[in-house]
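Possible regression after last week's pipeline update?

I re-ran a chain I had predicted before the update to compare outputs. Posting the input and the new output here so someone can diff against the archived version. Not blocking, just want to make sure nothing changed silently.
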Amino acid sequence: MKTYFLVLLFSILAVSCSKKVEVKGNFAGGSPLERIEFIEASGVATLPLTNIGVDSKGSFTGSFEAPKNGMYIMTYAGKQAMVYLKGGQTLNISGQAQNFPQQFTVTGDAKNNNDLLKEFQKFFEGYAAKVNVGEMVAQDEATFLKTIDRIKNDIEKGIDAAAKKTSADSEVADFKKDELHASLLGLMNQYEMNHGLASQNPSFKVSKNFRDVEKKLEGDTDKMLRSQPIFRNYLLGKLSQDFQTFATANNKDGKALTSELFAKFINTKKDLSQLAKDYLLGFVLSSTDIQQGMPAENIAKLDKVIKDNVKDAEIKKDLEKVLFVISGPKVGEAAPASKLIKQDGSSDKLFDGKGKPTLVMFYASWNPYISEATVPVLKEVVNFYKSKMNFTFVNVDDTKEQFVKTSNAMLKGIPGTNLYGEGGLNSQVAKDFGIYGFKLPSFIVLDKDGKIASRFFYNLGDPEIVTVLDKVTGLKAPMVQPEAHLQND
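New output (post-update):
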């Protein structure tokens, strides 16, 4: 009996501490080529946490580790919806594919909290239609602050009413109130910047009372920073004019990256906490400079900015990960020796060591237009370079059976080695090369020694990849029309 009690206790603790979210549902009328992804909405590095397939009937099932309780972006068919999730929950979703995201139903453990979001949204849409921001900016300060207080009280009552009606968790109502406060702070920042012009009083300055209201709305700034991207936008808005002045004065030759300049600028702001500096720099890094196709020089600069300036371990880890995913393995390093399998189940690797360079393609059957746009161009590339180069096609479909079916049908007759990353996008090869759904299909070149010889490419008509292929093979390709590109949307 004692042993049974301990087992039961541990199982309860395991469930209560679990971060795994189980997802299942159906979008009637959906295409089996569509995928469902979940992205943690408050993070600085917004990489998908999972990529779930949809079957021919529109049904789907999967799971992922939720890093925190909060808002998550759910993407489907190029559209987005917001859902509130907690670790250990089961999320059941259903609806008509054509109506997403305007209409869908959440059941399971996550129902009440997401019902609150829906209920509040109905209230808010009606309320927001009555608010005229332009008129507010023109009000005198005392009237404006009264308006802010009235809006705050009205909407908080709306949140409380929605929470009571849906029996949602108190933390969701608190989250929505923090979101409201961050939005009101954004309005106050607009007022401070624009009231002088609107009132034809260029010397206008806000009062101490205005600052006190700001301070009260900011509340627990660390909590707001961690959970509310809107709050970070508010802080960035307050800094924008000073940063523009700083950037102009400190980038005379125009060669500095925005992130380099912002890192120097933010370090002059002694009134900001280190956590605030980390989050704001993270936002600037991910929204301006970290992008596909970065030259190696920029990658090195951004890596240094992150290592030298970001102190929070979690934020630093996330930024380093997104930089790696977007840029890929470093040129000159040995290619990862990831485990891969052939159609017959035997093991193989990307590079066979036979002294030829290799063009590696990562792909999946559900990539849009891959048969129509990618494969025809790939055939031309293979036919031209095949005397001096090997070709490896790495499939990251959900199952080995789908890999066999896809590679036999799609790549039939194209010289090359067909391999599978077991586990698809969760495979070791996907982790080693930073492969996510948005990077498919993609190409990377290995030299004759099995070292990385290029960045990732998404377009075989890109002059840069043609230059790399010519260099590693010694051949000279004919000019490729720029419009002969791969669809990677």
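Follow-up from reviewer: compared with the archived run. The first strand starts at residue 20 and ends at 28. Marking as no regression found.
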